[in-house]
Amino acid sequence: MGIVVLTMKASVIEVFLVLLVTGIHSNKEMTKKIKRPKFTVPQINCDVKAGKIINPEFIVKCPAGCQDPRYHVYGTDVYASYSSVCGAAVHSGVLDNSGGKILVQKVAGQSSYKGSYSNGVRSLSLPRWRESFVVSEGKPQKGVTYPSTLTYSSSKSPAAKAGETTKADHSSSVPGTTAQPVTLMQVPGTTMVGATHTTLPKPSPSAGSTSSSLRPQPVGQRSRELAGEPDLWKPGSVLLDAGFVPKEELSTQSLEPVSQGDPNCKIDLSFLIDGSSSIGKRRFRIQKQFLADVAQVLDVGPAGPLMGVVQYGDNPATQFNLKTHTNSQDLKTAIEKITQRGGLSNAGRAISFVTKNFFSKSNGNRGGAPNVAVVMVDGWPTDKVEEASRFARESGINIFFITIEGATENEKQYVLEPNFANKAVCRTNGFYSLNVQNWFGLHKTVQHLVKRVCDVDRLACSKTCLNSADIGFVIDGSSSVGTSNFRTVLQFVANLSKEFEISDTDTRIGAMQYTYEQRLEFGFEEHSSKADVLNAIKKVGYWSGGTSTGAAINYALEQLFKKSKPNKRKLMILITDGRSYDDVRIPSTVAHHKGVITYAIGVAWAAQDELEVIATHPARDHAFFVDEFDYLYKLVPQVIQNICTEFNSQPRN
């Protein structure tokens, strides 16, 4: 009996051991099958602002298309948390417009944020904000755990906006996450800003777009309806924030901070918008939305760009001038209220109106800022623009043309002035003109236009000391000069001429030679390029004779400066080597009264007292003397400097 019991106990033990081994083996197999959860990078939309996300550090994936100006960015390198996360990533260069992963780290608020244009994104300036962030490549750092699901500070997350049922508020997080305290890092060399509390206005939803109704068309213009055209873009959809203003962002000084403007784009800008009947109501709304987008991207303010609008149809009218609205938000509100005038598309008349009336001190023109006029044309103008544009350019206005839906081959027969845009602008290199195939693509040109009008170094039509004068050289060809020295004088004239920007709309050069008699070598209208002018100077032949400087000044006034353009500065540069045989006092006084700024260059036996009479007051800035002809070249830098100093001391327009 005892043997049987022992046998049973042994069997039980064996079974237990088998089960134990089997269990351990099964557990090992199960362990092999269980994998650690993989980190999933959360995706966000372009419009998500850093302030909406509670997490102090996170990696996210941005979609393509975040370069669009509707996604506002504030600051450079360090961004205010009111900025679009993905827009800031594109601005900083971490991403391009195709999207990708980025690492975001919250940092302390700054006392100021400087706007800039970088990588196709125009960031705006802010005086202060309570929280900031920086972006870098989306590579996880060792020892840091990043959330797979973000914690939002609002009752609606971006996922909820897309139709999901995820709920979150300031005290509860998205399911599967734990709310984390916001720990802000201090950026070296920056000032942390305390918070005050007010409420930001909730953005209004985008207004729907309706088709335009049938309307009579002016003669020579197209009847074009939008029925059947693809609705690729709707007015009102570009700059409006979709969604909400999260509680985390309700800490600021007042409403959304008003910028002082981008100091890197200090221009006085006039938009000439097409209000003709042919454009229709829907296209007119698209045009207004384009203006609003430009106003937003420009970062308008007293220290930066100022913007006014003129609408034209049969006749032009100012909608508001440069000083009416001094921030982008007020501008956008004013633009929305503009109503269409109707009539023809008389762009030439509008350009003349702007030249004569718009850029005045009473309308807010600042004098020290370049004047820029952007002309928008639907199809083609119904009047001529070349002469009006030339006068505008000669008044120092930089003319830009945006032509939308230009004439097809069949329609060109109706165009009053073929190739009108190239005839209107300052340079035909494509910088000053934009052609847009259809109105639905107009919003894509916002960044291109802003970049160009803000590139003040390339605004060649702006008045400068080197591109805004008619310069007449009055050259002494008397016997005392001699052939060799005369060639040295011509080289001096050429060296001075080289310093200027020469064309029919910039600086123009003329020259005359005198002895007892006078001879016009070439007038202002004869040579319109620097190469042609230099070649003409080289061909001037030595005359030889006496020295009648007074008669030469009278001749210059009649034969050279009488044909000077009214908007040009008139500069006379007289070069002589001796005392005049006739009186110079009366002719010089007449020249000064006619507004001719006279520089007197004396060589060798020239009389100092006579030079001072000829020269414009003060004589110390306008009269020069050298002992020998070979030293003339030394005067070139000083003469140019004095010309520019005098120019810069005067009002720009």
TrEMBL record:
PROSITE patterns: LCCL, VWFA. Residues 40-133 form the LCCL domain. SUPFAM superfamilies: LCCL domain, vWA-like. It comes from the Eukaryota. Residues 138-233 are annotated as: Disordered. Residues 205-216 have a biased composition (Low complexity). CDD domains: vWA_collagen. The keyword Transmembrane helix does not apply. It holds the Pfam family VWA. The keyword Glycoprotein applies. InterPro entries: ECM_Assembly_Org, LCCL, LCCL_sf, VWF_A, vWFA_dom_sf. Residues 268-453, 470-639 form the VWFA domain. Residues 146-157, 171-183 have a biased composition (Polar residues). Keywords: Glycoprotein. This is Vitrin isoform X1. It comes from Vicugna pacos (Alpaca). The gene is VIT.
